[in-house]
Design a protein that fits this description.
The protein has about 300 residues and is an alpha+beta fold. About 35% of the residues lie in helices and about 15% in strands. The protein is built from ten helices and ten strands. About 10% of the residues have low confidence.
């Protein structure tokens, strides 16, 4: 009976799963529990540490595990040993050799080296050192063809210089015109060279007189019909002028005949040394052998009755 009571008291002192729903955990802290688990793992690997007098708690159904470092380091070492570049096989080498073709012969190698040297020489000639090349231009290798065409300003200056030279020289024999005899007209002037539109032809040279003097001279010339009248009246900057070219002077401008319908020249006033000068310029392009004509501009009834050809 006493033994039965002792067994019953031991059973009553234990806490079972049926009464609490789970096994009792150790009363020790988590650090001590972890040390105990580590001790068990070390014993499994054959490591037997010296026994200590620290009281051990009984194992519980709960087991804490950790990842072994040795397995992780082994995996990293395997990854390092892996090669990321594909291995060259004998098949790939054969394909490349087949594409490259047979090796060149000795003559072919010499020709190839010669061609490479020539190409390199040409490249060095066309592309010198970078420092010098920065200062070179396209014209260093290829000449630049300059246009022979002259600007309008240059052409105008040439015409003006030529005209001033002709007015100063007072010699019409070198102007590209000549005196010729015309049917039913008497003397006239022909071109012996090409003239472009607007080009200077000749000066209507004579004595520059005022209007009062011109009227007196005209009345005097009318008394002698054998002389004729070569007076040209014009207005420039609001003032009236007259050029009297009646006297024979060897100048050709006074000999140009009249045409009201088909003139190929026209008069123009230019200034030379502050003096107005009356010149004739081409009204159109003129070919050699063409008679030079301009409109006298006399529209008076008396002149038309006396000289009917003025209307032509």
């Amino acid at each position: 009976m006493a033994e039965h009571d002792q067994v019953t008291s031991q059973v009553a002192s234990r806490v079972t799963r049926s009464t609490q729903g789970k096994a009792p955990l150790s009363q020790k802290g988590p650090d001590i529990l972890e040390n105990e688990v580590n001790h068990v793992e070390d014993r499994k690997r054959g490591f037997n540490p010296a026994p200590t007098n620290t009281p051990q708690s009984p194992l519980t159904p709960h087991k804490m595990s950790r990842v072994e470092e040795s397995s992780l380091s082994n995996a990293l070492q395997k990854l390092k040993l892996l090669s990321l570049t594909p291995k060259k096989t004998t098949k790939d080498t054969k394909i490349k050799n087949r594409q490259a073709g047979p090796p060149p012969s000795t003559n072919q190698q010499q020709e190839s080296e010669t061609n490479n040297q020539e190409a390199q020489a040409v490249a060095e000639a066309l592309n010198p050192a970078p420092a010098a090349n920065s200062r070179l231009k396209f014209t260093n290798f290829f000449p630049t063809r300059r246009s022979d065409r002259k600007s309008k300003a240059d052409l105008l200056k040439e015409q003006t210089d030529s005209m001033e030279a002709a007015l100063t020289a007072q010699d019409d024999t070198k102007l590209g015109i000549e005196v010729a005899t015309m049917d039913n007209k008497g003397r006239g002037i022909k071109a012996v060279k090409d003239y472009s539109k607007g080009e200077f032809v000749v000066e209507y040279a004579g004595d520059l007189v005022d209007i009062k003097t011109a009227e007196d001279l005209e009345a005097k010339y009318s008394m002698d019909t054998s002389k004729g009248c070569y007076m040209y009246y014009f207005k420039y900057k609001g003032k009236q002028y007259c050029v009297d070219a009646t006297s024979e002077s060897g100048r050709f401008g006074r000999l140009l005949n009249h045409s009201r319908i088909n003139p190929n020249c026209r008069t123009k006033v230019v200034m030379l040394d502050d003096t107005p000068r009356l010149i004739l310029v081409a009204k159109q392009d003129i070919l050699p052998g063409t008679e030079l004509l301009f409109d006298y501009g006399d529209r008076s009834k008396e002149s038309l009755r006396a000289h009917p050809w003025l209307s032509l």
